[in-house]
């Protein structure tokens, strides 16, 4: 789910950028007057004498953007129930970081605008644009690992939810009680349909549209309804029964293909997947490639002539927005990340170092979609409107540049888990300090001609990649055995040490290698709850003798340090350090040479 989301958002960044450039070119062209005239064109729906009408910009901002926030609601619902946000310890750090990334930018803005005509725009620099951020991370490439993308996506989800709450609370001008009562009744009707498990799309579409109109008339911004409805959409993990029924239907179609069998197979396969996931699959492309770019086209067009730029340079609104995004986001997210880690409130999702986290904090200052959205709600004065947009463009651009520079300069390749050949040159021992003994975890025959000792870390992605390579070598050659020794990189991989302890608990039951394989198959999911689940599968008590297991892991670590282990994975072949590439062909050649030697 996360990977699909990354691909959609990162791929749509170019479309969003093109739409932004087109809006700027249109607004600054000889036909610039037509930009505002076009987006103020009224369009409505008539039912007899009743008429509902908005201009094109409001149809985009109030209508299409409701669908955008509906998709965010779907993502929130999925992640809370089945995804990244189900683990409270993983939520804590990005949630506090998101809060800091909103509080500090708002404070920076108010320092420059408190009591002035632009004071109401404090909400403009608070939100992060997920699409642009993931696009920049795609350019950063290898310096941004998947755990950082997961961290920033979680942060962005919390950021979006908080932004919607701020819009609803602080940017609602007036309330119509009758319309609000109608909206509440319609929402209750939708909740009732969900409770009754009535899944008729037309009913939800009609009630949803009526709820949107009632909310719009009530004075509350209708995008709040979008995220609320998204959260209400049912999400579940496929049950064994549904998977079995789907498999039977597909098998029946394969054996006797027909239109009826195809329809039944399609129906059962669809039912195995929750409505939430099906809607995400259908709506993500529309949201990313159509709705958000159209929103940018409708709102990013700002006049950038000499007069407007001079006004922006002296405007506290432009400076407040720009500095709020550039410095406020960076400082707020950095502090919001450090605090929960310092006090043990939560953990990071993987092998992240501070250079990567600071780079992520910097690019989170790209605040575009929601920032432009709040500008439209916060300001009536066209001049202040323009100055705020210029601040958004400047702050977002500078945040992207700062993030790229941090990733470029602060990423220390020696400071992350990496193959030995990626480490800086250092005089290291060539020989294994502690020979293989009965206390080691050994896979293969005792009289093997080749013994491969691996110092590994269950959370290290490179160890995860070499795991199947070593298994293939062992199965290919019956005279090859593999020995695993623990070397958890605790500062980089906070879940590696608990995983090692659980593997030792499994070893007490003679099931070390079963647990070893489970842990490497589930490297992204090593929380305490996950580890307890894996232990239950093997009938193991995970925390039965923590002190003893910690001591056992410490022995492996000590032997690794004495052997010159500095990163993971590190291999020793027949007691000699292996210094070649960590791919199947290279390790195979080294093993063959040892097998053929006298």
Strand content: 5-15%
Instruction: Give the strand line-up of the largest sheet.
Output: 3-5-4-6-7
Shape: globular
Q: Measure the end-to-end span.
A: 52 Å
**Unreliable sequence segments:** 1-8, 412-426
Average pLDDT, all residues? 81
Order of helices and strands: HHEEHHHHHHHHHHHHHHHEEHEHHHHEEH
Describe the biggest sheet?
5 strands, mixed
Organism: Nonomuraea rosea
Catalytic activity: Na(+)(in) + 2 H(+)(out) = Na(+)(out) + 2 H(+)(in)
Family: In the N-terminal section; belongs to the NhaA Na(+)/H(+) (TC 2.A.33) antiporter family.
Keywords: Antiport, Cell membrane, Ion transport, Membrane, Sodium, Sodium transport, Transmembrane, Transmembrane helix, Transport
Structure description:
The protein has 23 helices and 7 strands. A hairpin with a 2-residue loop joins strand 1 and strand 2. The radius of gyration is 28 Å and the shape is globular. The chain has helices spanning 2-27, 33-39, 56-81, 88-113, 130-140, 146-170, 177-195, 201-218, 223-232, 240-255, 259-272, 275-299, 306-313, 316-342, 354-363, 369-378, 382-410, 461-476, 496-508, 512-521, 528-537, 546-562, 584-596; strands at residues 42-47, 50-55, 441-443, 450-456, 480-486, 570-573, 576-577. It has 598 residues and is mainly α. The chain has a 5-stranded mixed β-sheet with strand order 3-5-4-6-7. It starts with a helix and ends with a helix. Mean pLDDT is 81; it is low at 1-8 and 412-426. 43% of the residues are buried. Helices cover 65% and strands 6% of the residues. Helix 12 (275-299) crosses helix 16 (369-378).
